[in-house]
Specification:
Helix content: 25-40%
Shape: globular
Strand order of the largest sheet: 1-2-3-4
Strand content: 35-45%
CATH topology: Phosphorylase Kinase, domain 1
Structural class: alpha+beta
Number of domains: 1
CATH class: Alpha Beta
Length: 76
């Protein structure tokens, strides 16, 4: 479960949930050093234990990182 107010990776403060689905939760966070808003997608604990779901998550990330455009969010 995502706990708002938590600092993740020593640099992201989790602010609010902005979406959720069958395999994950998307949270708005603030990069503490850059003072920039970011979105972070977390796999749900049950989903993270299934190899096929984890592979799908990675495939989606790899596809999203290749998208480019002025109206497309950058994926890291």
């Amino acid at each position: 479960m995502v706990k708002l107010g938590t600092i993740v990776a020593g640099k992201y403060l989790l602010d609010r949930v902005i979406g959720h689905g069958g395999m994950g939760v998307v949270v708005q966070a603030t990069h503490l050093q850059l003072h920039q808003p970011v979105a972070i997608k977390f796999l749900l604990p049950d989903s993270a234990q299934h190899a096929d779901t984890l592979q799908r998550f990675v495939r989606e990330a790899r596809a999203a990182v290749r998208l480019r455009g002025e109206h497309v969010a950058r994926v890291l």
